[in-house]
Recover the amino acids of this structure.
């Protein structure tokens, strides 16, 4: 085969739509196979339960989306998304203390996942070059160990089975992907897998925010301190479209996930600072509490197989999932879609799928190591990873990471580099350069903050003047 002409994408969510868009730039025909009905508006659906929890699209991912779909961020903002500039628009209690609100460096987009998914999907499908086969389930890959030639599908309503042939199949079926079984069925050896499972669980709820607070009040984040030896407890209040807040409370394994109404506010009060609880008490709940226990880090290494079939690529959560607390899943998938785009722009003959897969593997490495190396510091974390960075020398790395975290909240120059990395704008290796080491050692630190850095105007917006101005130690 020379250049692929036909493509099939398994899964029509975030990764699947970006992958389909990329395929449509290079291939003659593209079909998305999706088990659910894709809604005609910003609505929830069964296949994406994580959409009921707070999401941020970091600037590193947003810029890629804007390159693939020019003007997308503007459209999201026009639809009600909020641009959160870091650290101006975020009030956060990190593991090491309150973060100073340094001048903006990077940003993140915040809105509900249904709005984000629908806005992106509508734009991608408006091109008219992509066929969606919804209410259709992918059952298995067809072909052999050397080449995938298509996928066998089943209509959810009719039960009818069908073979869809394609030159290139992209698995974007999320964390439920059956790729490992499908590859075994094709006669390939087992794909290596690393798992770091801190048992993160989430309980989220939508609220009507006090008047004006979604536009002019910062996002709020209260993190756990991994050094206490206790299960971690977290809380976040993110502004969303339509004057709403999404509140996400979460805990690591052994923590009491507040899934019942009567436990929600008490859990928020039990965080290291009561700010989230104080905000909840001033907002009107709009939905029931949605719970999820999807906070695991899991990574497949298809690039390590000696043989990888032509005509197959895997990306998004089907390839790697990260503890959502770091907010890297969608940006990582956007990086993978960009890698796919770059490789399809070159001659895509035998071996090209393998090269593409390797490039995608490189692009998920930063979010993987960022999340997994932080999570192993928590009590009750189950580390079943062979990645040497997560075993030997992990304690020394944790000490360095703690030192950086401590500096980053009070030193603007250190914070800039950390924010570039966290937003997936700069590589993780920036944190290991001699220049950065020197910065950590000598950059002057601002005084330690003794409470949330909120202005009198912000406190007035949420009727919290009694908290008063925050001093510095
Ligand atoms: C609680 C939580 C909070 C998160 N917060 C953030 C955040 O703040 N920022 C961020 O960037 N990321 C976040 N994430 C991660 C983010 O949600 C995922 O990385 C992202 O949705 C991955 O998209 P995907 O398309 O790969 O997979 P999914 O969104 O899971 O989509 C998979 C799709 O495949 C379909 N499908 C599955 N199997 C089949 C089949 N056999 N046949 C046909 N279709 C199939 C499903 O119906 C679904 O539509 C969070 C995740 C969770 C769980």
């Amino acid at each position: 085969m020379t250049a692929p002409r036909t493509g099939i994408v398994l899964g029509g969510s975030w990764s699947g739509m970006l992958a389909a868009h990329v395929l449509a730039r290079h291939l003659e025909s593209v079909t998305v196979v999706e088990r659910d009905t894709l809604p005609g508006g910003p609505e929830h659906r069964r296949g994406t339960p994580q959409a009921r929890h707070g999401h941020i699209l970091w600037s590193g991912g947003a810029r890629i989306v804007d390159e693939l779909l020019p003007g997308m961020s503007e459209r999201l903002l026009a639809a009600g998304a909020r641009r959160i500039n870091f650290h101006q628009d975020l009030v956060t209690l990190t593991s090491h203390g309150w973060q100073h609100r340094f001048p903006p460096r990077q940003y993140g987009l915040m809105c509900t996942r249904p709005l984000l998914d629908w806005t992106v999907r509508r734009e991608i499908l408006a091109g008219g070059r992509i066929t969606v086969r919804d209410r259709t389930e992918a059952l298995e890959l067809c072909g052999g160990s050397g080449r995938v030639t298509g996928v066998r599908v089943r209509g959810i309503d009719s039960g009818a089975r069908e073979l869809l042939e394609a030159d290139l199949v992209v698995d974007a079926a999320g964390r439920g992907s059956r790729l490992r079984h499908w590859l075994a069925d094709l006669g390939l050896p087992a794909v290596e897998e690393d798992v770091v499972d801190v048992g993160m669980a989430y309980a989220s709820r939508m609220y009507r925010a006090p008047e004006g607070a979604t536009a002019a009040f910062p996002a709020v984040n209260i993190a756990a301190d991994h050094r206490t030896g206790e299960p971690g407890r977290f809380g976040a209040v993110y502004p969303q479209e339509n004057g709403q807040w999404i509140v996400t409370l979460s805990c690591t394994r052994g923590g009491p996930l507040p899934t019942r109404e009567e436990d929600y506010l008490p859990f928020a009060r039990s965080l290291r600072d009561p700010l989230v609880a104080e905000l909840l008490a001033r907002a009107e709940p709009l939905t029931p509490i949605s719970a999820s226990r999807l906070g695991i880090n899991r990574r497949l290494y298809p690039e390590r197989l000696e043989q990888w079939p032509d005509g197959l690529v895997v990306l998004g959560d089907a390839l790697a999932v990260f503890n959502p607390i770091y907010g890297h899943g969608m940006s990582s998938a956007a990086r993978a879609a960009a890698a796919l785009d770059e490789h399809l722009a070159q001659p895509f003959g035998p071996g090209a799928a393998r090269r593409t897969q390797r490039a995608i593997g490189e692009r998920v490495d930063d979010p993987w190591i960022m999340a997994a190396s932080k999570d192993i510091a928590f009590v009750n974390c189950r580390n079943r990873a062979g990645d040497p960075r997560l075993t030997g020398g992990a304690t020394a790395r944790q000490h360095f990471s703690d030192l950086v975290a401590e500096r980053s909240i009070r030193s603007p120059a250190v914070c800039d580099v950390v924010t570039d990395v966290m937003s997936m704008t700069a590589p993780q290796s920036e944190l290991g350069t001699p220049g950065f080491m020197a910065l950590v050692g000598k950059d002057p630190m601002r005084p330690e903050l003794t409470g949330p850095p909120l202005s009198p105007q912000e406190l007035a917006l949420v009727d919290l003047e009694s908290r008063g101005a925050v001093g510095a130690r």
Remarks:
- The pocket of flavin-adenine dinucleotide is lined by residues 10-16, 33-36, 47-48, 50, 53, 55-57, 137-138, 172-176, 202, 292, 294, 316-318, 324, 327-331, 333 (CB under 6 Å).
- The radius of gyration is 22 Å.
- The chain has a mean pLDDT of 96.
